[in-house]
From TrEMBL:
Xref: InterPro entries: AB_hydrolase_fold, Peptidase_S10, Ser_caboxypep_his_AS, Ser_caboxypep_ser_AS
UniProt similarity note: Belongs to the peptidase S10 family.
Taxonomic superkingdom: Eukaryota
GO biological process: proteolysis
Protein name, per record: Carboxypeptidase
Listed PANTHER family: CARBOXYPEPTIDASE, SERINE PROTEASE FAMILY S10 SERINE CARBOXYPEPTIDASE
Keyword Protease: yes
Key words, A-Z: Carboxypeptidase, Glycoprotein, Hydrolase, Protease, Signal
EC numbers, comma separated: 3.4.16.-
Class of enzymatic activity (EC top level): hydrolase
Signal peptide range: 1-22
């Protein structure tokens, strides 16, 4: 299907990527690019980009004016489109508890739908998704300055990023949740108030997120279904990336050895370490468990695993791999393990499990000028991740996060699939934080629409024909035009009974950041714009 990106976005992205001219290289000269030709090309892009700007404010009213974002520090004004942010209380007469949001209407043709995004943690801010994954403006690890994201989800849909649950980021209030039902109920309060303020009704609602939001998304979607109100809660689909939908610890312990064996070219472990891992993988029963239960169709319901890493630390293979990875590569990043040194600075201050940014570069959303611009409380010290945000038990619950709710595969995720027949679960093949085979084990232990797991082996390729839009101008200006053509086979897809599975090649944990073209296709499918990936 033809890419649904407005001319406006393409022109602006061209401005950003082309205006920072590369040197006039020998390759460019050999390919016939003259300095004057490059200068003329940049001038045309500047003229076109400025001409394409239009002040369109679909949701601007007296009620929404106080949330309107006029500008953002260090973000060129030409990048700005209609945007709103701030805190909406759960109870409009009591501002002590609420959720902070960013709302960006689509830059394309108006659509009557909202796609909600949650980051995970638990305790991590969805402003990460806004600034580094699927927002219109991208300022990711190692970037000197922000740029327009040509693969932004805002190109397709109205986007709502929410700092969730209460206590995360700028969202005010003391955490009181003991399970997933508690914050989901609070989200319903917030979302009712949001729709009233922005005069929204009869919209399709899509709920998306990544990582621990693999728990948030199904429970919030389930709460939306409970409203039985198509006017304000018309749940139409859900998407989760690298999600915690089953047992995180068990899935990673079972799946980590094959991951290391397949990817040791980037991890660099020595032969004796690999031999030790292989022996423990067999001795602890993980190899046999994979053989028995990563089967299509499933070989019955999986027996529960009770991991006791204190009593038997040798079987905690994932932690062994994680701890030793830093010795080989001090810049090891569990979310994108193919990265090597130097350690990349992060505008949000958290590029890996290490809090780090270059001296003089504070976390963007903790700056006073940024807080003022986005209507955030000035006295809140913003951190990308903080917690705890659940208080259910003393480090207990299925994932040892004080969150006592059952894993989503047991009830709420099947209900969402059956209600919408439009749910996508995806894992990045390089992700070492939540492993692909761990996610597949969870799916093969879930019953939905009358059957257990996938009945057939996923093997349909995902072919990405969308050309590079991020760096194509740089390639052209250096005489490499066309070298950055479409990617080709970038994953595997499989659809059964309302559930789409996608494994994304060359991607770590944050798929919209690491493989934005694949992520764009995922969203197109979720919204019903395409029938397959």
């Amino acid at each position: 299907m033809k890419l649904n990106i407005s001319n406006k976005v393409l022109l602006i992205s061209s401005l950003l990527l082309g205006i920072t001219s590369a040197g006039y290289s020998d390759v460019a000269r050999r390919r016939g690019f003259t300095p004057q030709a490059l200068e003329d090309l940049q001038a045309r892009r500047l003229h076109d980009a400025v001409s394409a700007q239009a002040d369109q404010r679909r949701y601007y009213t007296n009620d929404t004016a106080k949330y309107f974002v006029e500008s953002l520090p260090d973000i060129p004004q030409s990048y700005m489109t209609e945007m709103y942010s701030g805190i909406i209380p759960l109870n409009m007469s009591d501002d002590s508890r609420g959720l902070f949001f960013v709302f960006q209407p689509t830059v394309g043709d108006p659509v009557d739908e909202i796609t909600i995004w949650f980051n995970g943690g638990p305790g991590c801010s969805s402003l990460e998704g806004f600034l580094q994954e699927n927002g219109r403006i991208q300022w990711a690890w190692g970037q000197y300055s922000p740029q327009i994201n040509p693969y932004s989800w805002v190109n397709l849909t109205n986007m709502l990023w929410v700092e969730y649950p209460v206590g995360v980021g700028f969202s005010p209030g003391t955490p009181t949740a003991t399970n997933e039902e508690d914050p989901a109920a609070e989200f319903i309060q917030f979302f009712k108030n949001f729709q009233t303020i922005f005069n929204i009704s009869n919209y399709k609602i899509y709920v998306t997120g990544e990582s621990y939001a693999g728990r948030y998304v199904p429970y919030v979607a389930n709460a939306i279904l409970d409203q039985n109100d198509k006017t304000h809660f018309n749940l139409s689909g859900a998407l989760v990336y690298d999600p915690c939908i089953g047992s995180f610890a068990a899935g990673n312990a079972i799946a980590v050895y094959p991951y290391v064996e397949q990817n040791n070219n980037i991890l660099g472990f020595n032969e004796s370490f690999l031999t030790t891992l292989a022996d423990r993988d067999k001795q602890c029963g993980w190899a046999q468990y994979r053989q028995d239960y990563i089967q299509f169709p499933p070989n019955g319901t999986q027996p529960p695993l009770y991991l006791n890493n204190t009593a038997n630390p040798d079987c905690d293979l994932w932690t062994t791999v994680y701890d030793n990875a830093y010795g080989v590569n001090p810049c090891f990043n569990v979310y994108e393990p193919n990265l090597q040194c130097p350690l990349l600075s992060d505008p949000l201050g958290y590029p890996s499990d290490i809090v780090y940014s270059y001296p003089g570069l504070p976390p963007y959303f903790n700056r006073t000028d940024v807080k003022k611009a986005i209507h955030a409380p000035l006295d809140t010290e913003w951190q990308l991740c903080k917690g705890p945000v659940f208080i259910g038990t003393n480090g207990g619950g299925p994932e040892n996060e004080n969150d006592t709710s059952p894993d989503p595969i047991q009830r709420v995720l099947p209900r969402v699939i059956e209600a919408t027949n439009r749910v996508l679960v995806s894992n990045g093949a390089l992700d070492l934080d939540l492993l692909t085979n761990g996610t597949m084990l969870a799916i093969q232990n879930m019953t939905w629409n009358g059957q257990l797991g996938f009945q057939s082996t996923p093997n349909t390729p995902i072919v990405i024909k969308l050309p590079d839009l991020m760096y194509q101008d740089v390639f052209e200006e250096n005489g490499f035009g066309g070298f950055d053509a479409y990617q080709g086979i970038m994953g595997v897809q499989h659809f059964e009974r309302g559930l789409m599975w996608a494994e994304t090649y060359l991607s770590g944990h944050m798929q919209p950041q690491f493989q934005p073209r694949s992520s764009y296709r995922h969203l197109q499918w979720l919204l019903g714009r395409i029938d397959s990936l």
